[in-house]
Amino acid sequence: MADEKLIRTENLVKIFPMGSSKVTALNRVTLSFQAGEFAGLVGPSGSGKTTFLNIVGTLDAPSSGSAFVLGRTVEGLSHREAAWLRNRSIGFIFQTFNLLPVYTAYENVEFPLLLLKTPAAQRRKMVMDALDWVGLADRARSRPAQLSGGESQRVAIARAMVKKPPLLLADEPTANLDAENSHHILQTMEKLNRQLATSFLFATHDEKVIGYLRRKITLVDGRVAGDENCRARGAEGTEPC
Amino acid sequence: MIRFLYLGLWRDRSRSLFPLLTVVFGVMLTVVMFTWIKGFEVGFLATSARLGSGHVSVMSRAYADERDQLPNDAALAGAAGIMERLRRDFPLFSWTPRIHFAGLLDVPDEKGETRAQGPAGGLAVDLFSPGSPEPAILDLEPALVRGALPRRAGEILLADEFAANLGIAPGASVTLIAGTMHGGMATANFTVAGTFRFGAPAMDRGMMIVDLADARTVLDMDDAAGEITGFFRAGFYDREQAETEAQRFNDLFAASQDPFAPRMETLIAMSGMSQMLGWMDAMLGIIVVVFLAAMFIVLWNTGLMGNIRRYGEIGVRLAMGETKGRVYRAMIAEAAVVGLAGSLIGTALGLALALYVQEHGLDFSAMMRNASMLMSTKLHTHVTGTAYFIGFVPGLAATVLGAATAGRAIYKRQTSRLLKELET
Ligand SMILES: Nc1ncnc2c1ncn2[C@@H]1O[C@H](COP(=O)(O)OP(=O)(O)O)[C@@H](O)[C@H]1O
Ligand SMILES: [Mg+2]
Predict the structure, then answer these.
(1) Same structural domain for residues B289 and B381?
(2) Domains in chain A, ordered, with CATH?
(3) Residue B294 CB-density burial (10 A; 0-12 exposed, 13-18 middle, 19+ buried)
(4) Do A147 and A155 contact (CB within 8 A), yes or no?
(5) How much is the ipTM here?
(6) Which residues of chain B have pLDDT under 50?
(7) Dist. CA B413–CA A136, nearest whole Å
(8) pLDDT computed for residue A241 by the predictor
(9) Percentages helix, strand, coil for chain B, rounded to the nearest 5?
């Protein structure tokens, strides 16, 4: 089904079995996002933010309802098609950075390009560009253990954006960072959003992140409890989030 | 991507080192055990052939049926004629007559009274005829402990331990009391030329080696032989060929009803070795399977633990768009590299050890005092072609299988679940 929207969900439901009972992580969530958004799912722990991101990111399938992402129907994708979509078009940023510990920063950023079979010369340039973007070109040869938390998350951002995907999903990206590093990586992401038109969807309950959002969706117990556009930092107009 | 795989293995030693050591150790042990049992088998066959009845042996049917009793009254008559025929029609072997007999050895004092006495086993072989293969087959020189080899009729060799028990030294006179082929009693005097030790307990305890001509005279066995013994000219026992040749020989006499017609027996068929060799082969099979299973279980568990440790990595790789199949194959490829390296190193180490023991031997004489088999107490390994892959193939298979089994967890877990493990 063709769709102008970047992401659109309709009555999305996700139920997890929990022993003999069930947990409804998402309860009839209907949302849509345009290309170029800098939006966040906000809500207390357990409200379903990660679950929503996982379904949009094709890492999980909904129990019912449907999700359209980048022109594809998520619940109809085969395992391979889902991998292909993630590989080409979606970047992930996690709370715990999740760099592959045995590989250098350079190699971590290179990994998705290897999956895409990008030719070596082009790959080299793209990796160095991405590391430049996050200001870590000089740490290319460092292993994750030698990087600080902030540096690690910046490498993770480089890894997510090296293939220039239209969509970046960031799950609690600042939860393990101090304030200064949080602001630094948020500014990096904002710059990506502005200069490369990469759309961002966050899951967070961090006020620092919320301060950068241009749209805030509040989830409570798997339901959408609020959806407001707000003023970007330093911009004129509506209230800040 | 292969570079990534290699880097991962190289930098994350816990991913490679422990499985590698497991494989090296298991494969090495398998190779050593295999060559050890093969060496045991080969040594056992060689000693049995050399000091017993050759690789094949022709005897009368009546003799063959009661071989344990050394029934020389059923010995082959007209040995020379049979020998000639064997040499002509069965040239794969070198043929030589032997007589196995039993008797009593009596050591007289100056007055001719018995000073010491003991039961003796006798092996009569052709020591002196020109062209006799026996000196080369028996290779007596290295076995000589005291004295010299017999040089003329009337001289014998005695087991060193036996001579010591009788209290005699080379040069002593002994009297053999034995039964003749025709049921009479015979006595004959011999001079002990020297004493021997073969390292085969059954031989070393109470045997004497006598020249064939002497034995024929004493036992009244002119032109007779208990057995006509054949040794592969190639030097080693070929089980299949021995059986084929024996069959070919026995077919010639198939129509005969004569209980004294000749029959060819093979080394393995004689003295029930076939059961023992079958048992050894079964043991080998069991050893390989047990090692394979043990290695598989260890590697499977290592793989499982490695996977738990690597859930995060796997989750991230899936999130980056790698398919589960690809991640799974990468893990198997990793295991294959480890298995290949470990199996190579293990096989090399195992073979090196086995070749060393094959050359130099390990002396087990202290442990084998009471053995009654014709078997050397010096143990040698024997490296056959099979030794090159008996450990290698299971080593590689166990590693790959272990990883393949452990890796199935990737499929069982939801991708989102793999990532969930990472949240704090
Ligand atoms: N794989 C899962 N199995 C069972 N329950 C789950 C699973 N993932 C999430 N949940 C449950 O679903 C609810 C929403 O979880 P989640 O989406 O992770 O919330 P958030 O990210 O907002 O903290 C929680 O109650 C959580 O325990
Ligand atoms: Mg969450």
Answers:
(1) yes
(2) 7-229 (3.40.50.300)
(3) middle
(4) yes
(5) 0.89
(6) 372, 424
(7) 35
(8) 75
(9) 55, 20, 25
Q: How confident is the model at residue A2 (pLDDT cuts 50, 70, 90)?
A: very low
> Based on the domain organization, do B69 and B22 belong to the same domain?
no
Q: Where among B219, B235, B266 does a domain terminate?
A: B266
Q: What percent of chain A has pLDDT over 70?
A: 96
Look at residue A5 in the predicted model and tell me its pLDDT. Answer: 84
Backbone angles phi, psi at B363, to 5 degrees: -90, 120
Cβ of A27 less than 6 Å from ligand 1: no
CA of B30 from ligand 2 middle (Å) equals 51
Please report, for residues A44, A55, A60, the alpha-carbon distance to residue A52 in angstroms, rounded to integers and kept in the order given: 14, 5, 9
Is A13 in a helix, a strand, or coil? strand
Identify the sign of the CA torsion B227, B233, B239, B241: negative
Same domain, residue pair B338 and B244: no
Residue A3 has pLDDT above 60, yes or no: no
B193, containing H or E segment: strand B185-196
Helix (H, G, I), strand (E, B) or coil at A4: coil
Residues B85 and B208 in one domain: yes
Taking only the tens place, the pLDDT of each residue in A54-100 is: 999 999 999 999 999 999 999 889 989 999 999 999 999 998 888 99
Ranges of beta strands (E only) in B109-184 are 114-125, 144-147, 155-159, 173-179
> What pLDDT was estimated at residue B9?
84
Q: What is the pLDDT of residue A123?
A: 95
Give the dihedral sign, CA B159/B160/B165/B168: positive
Could you tell me if B283 lies within 8 Å of chain A, comparing CB atoms? no
Please answer yes or no on whether B323 and A95 come within 8 Å at the CB atom: no
**Confidence class for position A1, pLDDT limits 50, 70, 90:** very low
Q: Give the list of residues 6+ apart from residue B184 with CB closer than 8 angstroms, or none.
A: B220
Q: What angle (nearest 5°) sits at the alpha carbon of residue A192, between those of residues A189 and A194?
A: 110
Nearest to B197 by CA among B232, B257, B157: B157
**Size of chain B in residues:** 424
pLDDT of residue B358: 80
Residue among A14, A15, A51 whose CB has most ligand 1 atoms within 8 A, to mutate: A51
Mean pLDDT, chain A, rounded, equals 92
Q: Which residue, chain included where needed, has tokens 């805030």?
A: A216
Residues B419 and B299 in one domain: yes
- Angle (CA) A3-A7-A13 rounded to 5° is 115
Domain that holds residue B27: 2-47+275-423
Question: Of the residues B215, B233, B266, which one is the last residue of a structural domain?
Answer: B266
Same domain, B248 and B382: no
Nearest-CB residue to A112 (from B321, B422, B423): B321
Q: Is B76:B248 a contact under the CB 8 Å cutoff?
A: no
Would the pTM count as exceeding 0.90? no
Q: Give the Å distances, CA to CA, from A165 to A93, A160, B283.
A: 13, 8, 61
Q: Phi-psi bin for A137: left (phi > 0), alpha (psi -120 to 50), beta?
A: alpha
Residues B188 and B322 in one domain: no
Q: Looking at the structure, tell me whether residues B290 and B179 fall in a common domain.
A: no
Q: What is the pLDDT of residue B375?
A: 54
pLDDT tens readout for residues B319-366: 999 998 998 999 899 889 999 999 999 999 999 988 888 877 776 655
Q: Give the minimum alpha-carbon distance from A155 to chain B in angstroms, rounded to a whole number.
A: 14
- A26 C-beta closer than 6 A to ligand 1: no
